[in-house]
Every structure is written in structure tokens, then in C-alpha cells.
Amino acid sequence: MASVSQSPVNFSGSLSSATSASDLLRSSINGVNGVPLQTLGKGHVGPRRKGLNIVAKVRKVKKHEYPWPQDPDPNVKGGVLSHLSPFKPLKEKPKPVTLEFEKPLMDLQKKIIDVQKMANETGLDFSDQIISLENKYQQALKDLYTHLTPIQRVNIARHPNRPTFLDHVFNITDKFVELHGDRAGYDDPAVVTGIGTIDGRRFMFMGHQKGRNTKENIQRNFGMPTPHGYRKALRMMYYADHHGFPIVTFIDTPGAFADLKSEELGQGEAIAHNLRTMFGLKVPIVSIVMGEGGSGGALAIGCANKLLMLENAVFYVASPEACAAILWKTAKASPKAAEKLKITANELCKLQIADGIIPEPLGGAHADPHWTSEQIKKAILESMDELQTMGTEELLRHRMLKFRKIGGFQEGLPVEPEKKVNMKRKEEPRPGLISDKVLQGEVNKLKEQIMKAKESSSIDMDQNGLIEKLQREINYEFSEAAKALGIEEKLSQMREEFAKVENGQLTSGQIENLERLKNEFNEKLETAPNYGRLKYKLSLLKEITEAKVFAENYKKTLPLKAKVNEKFKEVLEKSTLKQKIENLKAEVEKSDVSSIEEFDQDLKEKVLEVREEVESEFINALESSGVHVTSKIGQSSMSLVKAKVDELNAEINQIIQDVIESTPDLKSKIEMLKLEVVKDKNTPSKESKEKIEALQQQIKEGVADVMSSAAIKEKYEQLQAELAELSGGSDGSLIKEPINKTRRGCTEFWNVD
């Protein structure tokens, strides 16, 4: 095989400029020195190539000072090993950045500077003014930073001058050695790891590293790690677990880098691997959110035993801007999204996601980075002291339970009052949307429950809910009828007029207008399109109200009924009566008759005699137990008395109605009473109650003369005498209840509640 001679050949032009040093170096592998591989592929071997000479220039680069420089400064904090990190303090102080909500503070600061400048130029003493302005500035700063909104805390967490992970690490550690690489060919600058000591105690540190200026941010990829960064952190976790170093992680990232290359390299798998591994590490882990913690990119190094947050840090699954764009289709709704997401340190501590808050100075961590770092140092040591007292199994269980309890709930437990405040109340169906069939079904169901309860002699029903629902439906139907009849506007105007009335005194003209409008509405009501539904719902309300009255009355009689039954059994168990009843049964059986009408006269008399004796003993037993028994009245006689009582009631009501119609002052008071009761029906005030009581007393006095008229007195006395005769010469006490009902009937025209 032909060989190429090593005689010098000079290349010029584009070919020589395109030749790289790596090509020259790789060509030596084939036994050819100084010949580019590209040239070997293109050149021809022959006699005419003998005079060629290949020359390559290797570009000079700055020698990298690694692992440390040849002449290290021994006075550097942390010793020679600190040179392993390329992170150095900035030569220039970062430019101050004013957030939007801080501009009022800057105005005060500008005034202070102007006054100081004036004092320097004129030589005058403005110390009092300067002190006053400085006090105002400090007070305004305190007020602002103690009442920050969630979106303002997000802006502080993203502040360009906020201290980074390495800023805090170099402030809190005695020594720190940065460790590089994921052992798979890459070293992600967005994730920094290393070993450091705090007060002589070794820790493994790892965290997201943002840049302090534009150049560093580009180099650090704005703190957004690639899969290589998470694999580097994973390697250091295994390293710390093997050597028993507690792990401290610092979280400050908007999220994992979401480009095509990262997805191809397994971004999701890298995060998932970290999550799984962190739950099995046998060393204590403390995570500190020092800026913003975004989604899985933050959680990949955040599965710790304790999660601490700086006061103005945020921790979220989606940024407020992204959430607003998804829910409200605009990023301008980010303040609302930040509030709803509950991403601040205070909110996350309430939800038991974060375990503690590290304070920041007024103005944020960037206002005093060293003080903030000291607070972080104290928090780390306190947390580690607590965690290092746990055994391995207890530590793993502690970490597992911390995440298992997040978002957990148990049904049936009472809700805490502070949580119940923010819960959405159950909304009642809007009136008019409930069908008549549903309402009828509920009424029938309630009736069945009442009947079943009656059979079991135990009624404990609540009809108020259904009555309120029906009343809402009826009010809605009345409103719809008023709209359809064109009366709604007149009602609104009248309400406005009544609201302007002083002392609640209506004029005669206003009362006439009210009566006229009421009569007009009643006359036209049957022509309303929803009159059928209104009438049907009114009938349902009447049914359920009657059922309620029955249930209440029956419930009141249950104790008395039980007592009466008990006494009756005691009477029947008496030996004398029991013997007489047994003898009477034997005689009836011997007579061989089936009905009492077929008894002979002697047997009938014996039955009546035993019956009267049982009744007498029964009444005596009831009287002795405190139950007053008046007398027994036949059913037909009682019906007659009831009819007469109803007739007397109707007559009294008619007389009262005539008196009211003929007395404008009394009628005006009744209308005022109705309005007052309706106005404050739900929560009447003390003043309203007093006014209602005064009006009721005035109306009672107005109708008192009606009750004292001679005609009514005569009928009342006559009815009482008839009842006394029926009751066997007693004082007619059984009529007290009907007569009281008659008296109460007098108030039906004014008692509107």
C-alpha cells in the first residue's frame, strides 16, 4: 500500500481555514502526522503530492484554573477548597430594581435625598425634617410589607436582586466544596451541589441556581434544570445517603426546562426517579423554598422531612399567569389566580404543606441578604436537631406521612369553623323552577310520615322547611302575577313613598292608594297567566299548615294520653272491679245473646251499674294524679254547642269588621301594623318591636268596646247557661275554651304576624 511522505505542504484559502486541531490530532491515529482526515478523504496519493507540507495552528485558550489556582489566596473564606466553585462575588453592585407597588416608597426616599442634598448645599440644619421623613418611610415600608397581596409576594420572590442559592451557602457555611457532573457526560449549571459544614457539622447542599445578571441567567438557564441537573442531584443524594450526610435542598425555579431536547433526554423520568429515591433516603432532608418553587421542577428536590419557606417565597403547581391564561383566557387575571391558588407561605402552612416560615427583613431578602442567611442557618440547625433524634424507620415514616396527609379528608367529621367560612353554601333552587309534581310529592311524603308517626305514638316532624319553600314559591308567583298585570311598577313607587314616611305615620291619601292598589290586584288576579299555579300552591300550603297544626296538637296530647291509659289500666286491675267485670262477662256468656239491645232489663242495669262504677273510679284516679275532669257531654250536644260558638264568633268578627271600616283611625293603625310587621319580619329591631306592641295595644283598646256590648254579653251568657245544663249542672267550664277562641277571634283583623 502506498504511503504519504512527511514533506511539508502549505495549505491556504478556505481549506486551511476549515481544518481544525481535532482533525489534525485524529489523523495521527492512522499513522499520518499533521494530515487532516478531511484531506485524507479528498487527496490523491501519487508522485505529484510528494512536495506537500501540512501545517496546523492550534488556537490558544485561557488555561482553566482547576481544581484551584496555582497561587490561591489563603485568606479566602472557606479556605483553598472554595476555589472549586467558579461562583465569585460580583465586581459591581447590582442596580436597584423598584417593583410597581414600591413606587410610593421611592417617592418618600427621593424626598429624603432632596432634603439631605439641600442641607449639604446650604449648610442649614434639616435634621428634624429628615428624621420625620425617615420615620414616615419606615412606617410606610412596614405597612406595605405586612399587608402584601399574593401577587406582590410572587413579584418579590422573582426579584432580580434576590439572593441566590450560592449566596446563602457561602454565607452560612464554614467550608463549601462544589461537586460537579452527573457522571453521564454533562454538568448542568442550573443545579449546584456540594458538601459544606455549618458549625463543624457536615451537610450535603443542593439547589437551583439563578443568575445575578443577564449574562449569568443565560449561563444558568434562568434556574430551569435539564434532566442532567436532576441526575446530578440524584448522584449526590446517593453519595450523602452512603456517607450519612444530612441533605439540605434550596428551591428557586420557575420549573423544569421544557424544551424538546430535555423531553428527549427524559425530563419526566429524571424527576420521577428523584421523587422515588428521596422517599427511601435514610438521612434527614430539609428543603427551603427561597424564591419561587414551580411544579415538578421544584418537587424533584423537595420531598423532605421538613419544608420551610422564606416569608415572601411561593410554591405552586402552575404559575399565576399560566393559571389565569387557562381559566380566564388572559394573563391579566394573575392577581386573582395568585389569591385562589393559595401559594404563599402563610397559606401553605395552614394547609400543612409547608412546616415553617423563615422571616425576611422589611423590603425582602435582597434588602439584607446576610441577615436572611442567618435566619436560614438557624432554621436548618433547629430542624436537623429535631430530625436527627429519630431512628431510620421513624425518619422514613415521618417523611411518608408528611406527604400522605396532604389533601386528605375524612367524611363525617365536623368541619372546622375557620374552614367552613370559605366553603360554598348550598344554593336553594330558584323559585319558579320547582315543578308542581315535586311539591305535591313532598307534601304527600310529609303526610305519610305524620300518619306513620301517629301510629307509633311518636311525632317528631319538621314541616318548617317545606312551609318556607312553599312560601317562597307563592311569593314568586305573586311577583310574577304583579308583573303580568302591570302593577309591579306601582308597588315599587309605593314602597319608595312608604320608606320616606317619618315615624311610620301614613297619611289618609297613602292609605287610600294602598287600598285601591290592593283591590285592583285582587280583582285582576284571576286573569293572571299563573293564577292556576298560584292557587294550587296556596292549597298545598294550606294542607301542610293543617298537617303541622295537627302534628303539634297531637304531640301535645301524647303525654296526657299515655297518663290516661296508664291510670285506666290501674283502675281495671283493682280486685273489686276486676271481680265484678269477670262476673258480668260470665252472665253475658250464659245469656247467649250477641248485642246489648237483646239483653234483658236486669242485665242492662247491671252493665250500666258496672260502667258507672268504672267511670267513677277512673275519674277519681285522674283527679288524684292532677288531671282535671269536668264532665262528659254527648257528641250531638257538643256539636250543637260548637255550632253556636262558631255562630257567635262569626257575629263578633262581623261587628269588629264594621267598627274598623267605620273608624279611619283604627283602620290606619291596622295598615301601619301590617307594614311594620312585613318590613322587619326576619330580624325585627328593638325599636320595631316596641312600635308593633304599641300599635297592638292601641288596636285592642279600639275594639274593646265591641266586646262589652250588651248584645254579645247576652248571647255569651245564654251559651254558657246551655253548656252548664248539658254538663249536668256544673259551672259550664267547658265553654271557656270556645269563648276564649271567640275572644281571640277579635284579634284576627290586626294580628298579621
UniProtKB/TrEMBL annotation:
Pathway: Lipid metabolism; malonyl-CoA biosynthesis; malonyl-CoA from acetyl-CoA: step 1/1
Gene3D superfamilies given in the database record: 2-enoyl-CoA Hydratase, Chain A, domain 1
Residue ranges crossing the lipid bilayer per the database entry: none
Catalytic activity: N(6)-carboxybiotinyl-L-lysyl-[protein] + acetyl-CoA = N(6)-biotinyl-L-lysyl-[protein] + malonyl-CoA
Coiled-coil ranges from the UniProt annotation: 685-729
GO annotation (BP), single: malonyl-CoA biosynthetic process
SUPFAM superfamilies with a match to the protein in the record: ClpP/crotonase
GO MF entries: acetyl-CoA carboxylase activity; ATP binding; carboxyl- or carbamoyltransferase activity
GO cellular component terms, semicolon-separated: acetyl-CoA carboxylase complex
One Pfam family here: ACCA
Record's keyword annotation contains Lipid metabolism: yes
Top-level division of the source organism's lineage: Eukaryota
Enzyme superclass (EC): transferase
Residues covered by the CoA carboxyltransferase C-terminal domain: 132-386
Keyword Coiled coil belongs to the record: yes
Enzyme Commission number(s) of this protein: 2.1.3.15
Keywords: ATP-binding, Coiled coil, Fatty acid biosynthesis, Fatty acid metabolism, Lipid biosynthesis, Lipid metabolism, Nucleotide-binding, Transferase
PANTHER family for the chain: ACETYL-COENZYME A CARBOXYLASE CARBOXYL TRANSFERASE SUBUNIT ALPHA, ACETYL-COENZYME A CARBOXYLASE CARBOXYL TRANSFERASE SUBUNIT ALPHA, CHLOROPLASTIC
The protein's name: acetyl-CoA carboxytransferase
Source organism per UniProt: Helianthus annuus (Common sunflower)
